[in-house]
TrEMBL record:
Gene3D superfamilies: 3.40.630.30. Residues 108-246 form the N-acetyltransferase domain. InterPro entries: Acyl_CoA_acyltransferase, GNAT_dom. PROSITE patterns: GNAT. Signal peptide: none annotated. This is Ribosomal protein S18 acetylase RimI-like enzyme. Transmembrane segments: none annotated.
Length: 246
């Protein structure tokens, strides 16, 4: 690279690196529904990355976050060079589908993906958030429970006890490449096998559609979730690092 690089903020959360009026790098700051700001930088050269990062970090409030594939050592080192440190590791699992013989918790019914009601899901979302925030803190969670806009088709299966929603599992991704997201159960209903029943129902229905494998991200510090997925034969395929600049 022989010409000077010019960094331009082209929108509120977008930056371009220009060389002779040619875009050689892009940076973006994406707010998550939980309020955190995640950065991404796409460039071919480390010097361009450093210049984009320098401008973005100077113009944005901390804390800032990013996620990298742990196997991408170059990208990880670029972020670490700018001051980011590892906040946590998430394992990406390949989860085999199939029909599993799992005892149904007494008095609990599983509502399949796409059939849950929006209102009770949102009520469950609010209560689980409050429970998590009062214990480990919501920032320990890998994703928002209900980030889709109101009125969009539900991507959740739910566990119902009586007339109350007590647990949910989120399924996203393309139809042939499903991803199992957050599994959550109300605090007073935990240790009854509800999460296991939810996961078994989702995997069984995916298997019935001819899908052999789903994926899932699990925080390595969440030992209960690790045990849950590995109990269904899930295997670690890769890992991501969430980095933070405070």
């Amino acid at each position: 690279m022989n010409s000077a690089i010019v960094i331009t903020r082209v929108a509120e959360r977008h930056w371009h690196a220009l060389e002779d009026d040619r875009v050689v790098g892009r940076g973006e700051a994406s707010p998550r529904p939980d309020g955190r700001l995640f950065l991404s930088i796409d460039s071919w050269h480390g010097t361009v990355f450093d210049q984009l990062a320098g401008v973005m970090l100077a113009e944005l409030p901390t804390p800032l976050y990013t996620v990298v594939d742990e196997a991408d050592r170059d990208l990880t080192s670029h972020w670490q060079r700018t001051g980011f440190t590892t906040r946590r590791r998430e394992w990406e699992y390949d989860v085999p589908t199939g029909v599993h013989s799992v005892p149904q918790p007494a008095g609990v019914t599983i509502v399949p993906v796409g059939e849950a009601d929006e209102g009770p899901l949102r009520e469950l979302d609010r209560e689980i958030r409050a429970e998590v925030e009062a214990s480990v803190g919501w920032l320990s969670m890998p994703a928002e429970v209900l980030p889709h806009p109101a009125g969009a088709p539900s991507k959740h299966a739910a566990a119902v006890a009586g007339h109350r929603y007590v647990g949910l599992v989120r399924v996203t991704g393309r139809p042939r490449s499903p991803r199992i997201g957050l599994i959550a159960v109300r605090a007073e209903e935990q240790r009854r096998g509800i999460a296991r029943a939810l996961l078994a129902d989702v995997l069984g229905r995916l298997h019935g559609k001819g899908i052999d494998t789903a994926s899932a991200d699990v925080n390595e510090a969440n030992h209960a979730a690790v045990a849950l997925f590995e109990g269904f034969g899930a295997r670690r395929a890769s890992s991501n690092l969430e980095l933070v600049l405070r």
